[in-house]
């Protein structure tokens, strides 16, 4: 009997229509009833039991779950914050969204701006600044096809963020990076969902990749709010993981030229640095780095041993859990949730580059195929 076999079969073969996360958690969010919501039915992402990852940790009685944020409409957790940020920007009368991005924020901002156009704001526009040559092709293509104006700068994310902050100060445009508190407000719903999915408990440990540090900040806000409301009795230890070549919080100083294969978290001076430290300290968690080799090993394991499709940056959460397990930092019988922040199809080139499973070419006959396969 595994997790799935123990579930009671439901006579209801269709689930109720999911109203999007603002409507689902409206009473817990800073939003009034008159606001016109811009939503793509984001949220309600699966919490998937991950026995292969638990096994790789080698800790007795460990339960590992994946919060699969790749199942959001634009394929990443950014949609949670973006439904809120674009909704609020539109309600304030702003029509142009701007962001700096390592890729996912730009895809999400572009998607929600298109959604705003569909919902009566035909003049809504989106401008995204990305580091030229350092964003995964899937994300770039999303920003383009959703109809945003992409600006590729000869610089990194940190420089792009400085530029968009200045633009938003000077012009009547909405900054939709996670320095905008509306983004954090939307993203904290992921913590609510995890507690709901675990039947009114928070996990013992939450493992999460850290880039600009908005998401770890949002999760901690969500867990604290659920505990304060008495909806859960416990709070998780927050364990955040940066890529070793882009690990300013771990090192204790900004990194001028961050480098990692996990381009989504190639960030040297996180905007929510202080809040990330607070989350880790208040929850008795930790912040650590994982090397690109550890990220890629976890990335391959998540796919080939577990069947879940995530991008390299997301795999930092699992790589971090495995590292912490080996260091004796994970207690027996713990319930751990690893957040997989973005969908693997955004960066299929990395999958092709790193996998040891290679396609074989044959002529188109049964015998040639059988021979090539050594059947
Ligand atoms: C897949 O898109 O910063 O610590 O500009 O895309 O909240 O920044 C993306 C970040 C983790 C880190 N996983 O989250 C952007 C951007 C994925 C990401 C992070 C990002 P934060």
* Ligands bound, unique: ligand AN7
Helix fraction, binned, reads 40-55%
Largest sheet: 6 strands, mixed
Largest beta sheet: strand ordering: 1-2-10-7-8-9
N-to-C span = 33 Å
Reading the helices and strands in chain order gives HHEHEHEHEHEHEHHEHEHHEHHEHH
Tally of alpha and pi helices: 16
- Number of E-type strands: 10
The outline comes out as globular
Structural class: alpha/beta
Radius of gyration: 21 Å
Fold topology:
Layout: H1 3-6, H2 21-24, E1 47-49, H3 51-57, E2 63-68, H4 78-91, E3 96-100, H5 104-118, E4 125-131, H6 137-145, E5 149-153, H7 157-170, E6 174-175, H8 181-187, H9 189-197, E7 205-209, H10 214-228, E8 237-243, H11 248-251, H12 273-282, E9 286-290, H13 292-304, H14 315-326, E10 335-340, H15 348-354, H16 366-372
Parallel strand pairs: 2-10, 3-4, 3-6, 4-5, 7-8, 7-10, 8-9
Antiparallel strand pairs: 1-2
Helix pairs in contact: 4-5, 4-8, 5-6, 8-10, 9-10, 10-12, 13-14
The structure holds ligand AN7.
The site of ligand AN7 has 21 residues, from helix 5 and helix 10.
Task: Provide a compact summary of the structure.
The protein is of the alpha/beta class and 375 residues long. It is built from 16 helices and ten strands.
List keywords for this structure.
single chain, 375 residues, alpha/beta, six-stranded mixed sheet, four-stranded parallel sheet, 16 helices, globular, binds ligand AN7
Descriptive notes:
Helix content is 40%, strand content 14%. The chain contains 16 helices and 10 strands. A 6-stranded mixed beta sheet has the order 1-2-10-7-8-9, with helices on both faces. It binds ligand AN7. Ligand AN7 binds next to α5 and α10.
């Amino acid at each position: 009997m595994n997790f799935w076999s123990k579930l009671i079969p439901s006579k209801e073969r269709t689930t109720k229509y999911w109203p999007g996360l603002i409507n689902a958690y409206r009473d817990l969010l800073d939003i009034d009833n008159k606001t016109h919501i811009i939503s793509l039915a984001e949220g309600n992402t699966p919490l998937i039991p991950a026995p292969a990852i638990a096994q790789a940790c080698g800790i007795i009685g460990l339960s590992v779950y994946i919060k699969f944020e790749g199942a959001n409409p634009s394929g990443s957790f950014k949609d949670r914050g973006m439904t809120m940020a674009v909704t609020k920007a539109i309600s304030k009368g702003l029509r142009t969204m701007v962001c700096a991005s390592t890729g996912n924020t730009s895809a999400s901002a572009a998607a929600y701006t298109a959604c705003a156009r569909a919902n009566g704001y035909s003049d809504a526009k989106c401008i995204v600044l990305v580091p030229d040559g350092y964003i995964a092709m899937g994300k770039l293509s999303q920003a383009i096809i959703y109809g945003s104006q992409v600006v590729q700068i000869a610089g990194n994310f940190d420089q792009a963020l400085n530029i968009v902050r200045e633009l938003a100060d000077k012009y009547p445009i909405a900054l939709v990076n996670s320095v905008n508190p509306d983004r954090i407000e939307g993203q904290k719903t992921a913590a609510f969902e995890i507690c709901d999915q675990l039947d009114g408990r928070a996990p013992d440990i939450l493992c999460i990749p850290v880039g600009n540090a908005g998401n770890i900040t949002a999760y901690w806000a969500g867990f604290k709010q659920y505990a304060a409301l008495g909806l859960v009795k416990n709070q998780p230890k927050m364990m955040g993981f940066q890529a070793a070549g882009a690990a300013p919080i771990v090192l204790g100083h900004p990194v001028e030229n961050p480098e990692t294969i996990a381009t989504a978290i190639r960030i040297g001076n996180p905007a929510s640095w202080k809040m990330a430290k607070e989350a880790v300290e208040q929850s008795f968690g930790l912040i650590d780095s994982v090397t690109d080799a550890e990220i890629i090993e976890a990335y391959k394991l998540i796919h080939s041993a577990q069947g879940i499709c995530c991008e390299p940056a997301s795999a930092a959460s699992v790589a971090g859990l495995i590292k912490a397990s080996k260091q004796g930092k994970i207690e027996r019988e713990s319930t751990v949730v690893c957040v997989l922040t973005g969908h693997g199809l955004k960066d299929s080139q990395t999958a092709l580059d790193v996998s040891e499973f290679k396609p074989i070419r044959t002529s188109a006959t049964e015998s040639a195929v059988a021979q090539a396969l050594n059947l």
